[in-house]
Amino acid sequence: MPTPTRRLTFVGSYAASDQPGIQAFVFDEMTGALTACGSFMGVVNPSFLVVHPNGRWLYAVSETSERNDGAPGGVSAFRFEREPWAIQPLNHQPSGGDWPCHLQLDATGQWLFVSNYGTGSASVLPIRDDGSLGEMTDRVQHRGNGPNAQRQEGPHAHSATLTPDNDFAIIADLGLDQLVIYKFNAVAGKLRPHGQMHARPGAGPRHLALHPNGRIVYVANELDNTVSVCNYAGAAGALREIQTLDTLPQAMENTVADIHLSASAQRLYVSNRGHNSIAVYGVKGDGRLTRLAIPSCGGNWPRNFASRPVAASCWRRINIAVKCVCCRCRRVRMRSALRWRASPCRRRLACNLCDDDRLTPDHSL
Q1: Does the predicted TM-score (pTM) go above 0.70?
Q2: Which of 55, 88, 176, 182 has the smallest count of CB within 10 Å of its CB?
Q3: In the prediction, which pLDDT does 325 show?
Q4: From CA 124, how far away is CA 103, in angstroms rounded?
């Protein structure tokens, strides 16, 4: 049963429609333990989830493609209860492309952004009063390629991030090495091209994290294993890169995945797939970074993760509960929590290795 220190947590995965692709757990913030409390089957590859701020609605991608699966990508809406735990599907809408891999709610909670990796497009869906999804109000299609012939043969929209004022949407396109900026109309659910920031050739921007001061954006670059710091000019809706740091101790086969800023904005975390670690950075007063440590994540292929603060104690710890996915068959299994001493950090992290799941209060992973 969820309590102030026991949080309902949703976990997505790659699964057939007759398999429980969405699983629910109670996350114990004191011990880092995950206890299963339910599941749902009926969605193909619900690999990324997001919970609405009202704590009653859940949204999941269906990461499929017309060519490989016979159906383009989609997004499903659910209503859930905590006591007793129950989940009910509300409806399903097309995502506007192939392989949707990321969802983002706007600040009003009335619009859902979906990024389609396979076709390099992003769409906006309205959220109705009952939590169900309305028909798409807008869709933007990227074009072009990058220098990496295997990974950047075309556009690959990997995430959408709304600026703190909800005025702009920043689409990280791994295939184009660009952060594409759109002016967002939160009344009509429309996107208007505004500008772009070009990343270094072959960087492959994937996910973003915004500093609460509204002036700094952090970028996880998947292909060249770096994290970038960008100045953001809110009035102009413009980005400028000011620093780039490696996420690895030395060059090796690896791809960067997720990125999150601590609630205090004093630490930044980036996951490494291959090195199987979490790079930890200290955040300076001007937003620039200093790398502090690269501890093991305790599992294999940490695609996404999330953090929860813990109370101060004589031991400062990071606890990681890892969900592993086999790179060959994509079967998922849960691992027990891993703990290590890390005196610069007072965080508990929950990570999973399914493509693009995340934990957000009150909570999906």
Answers
A1: yes
A2: 88
A3: 47
A4: 10
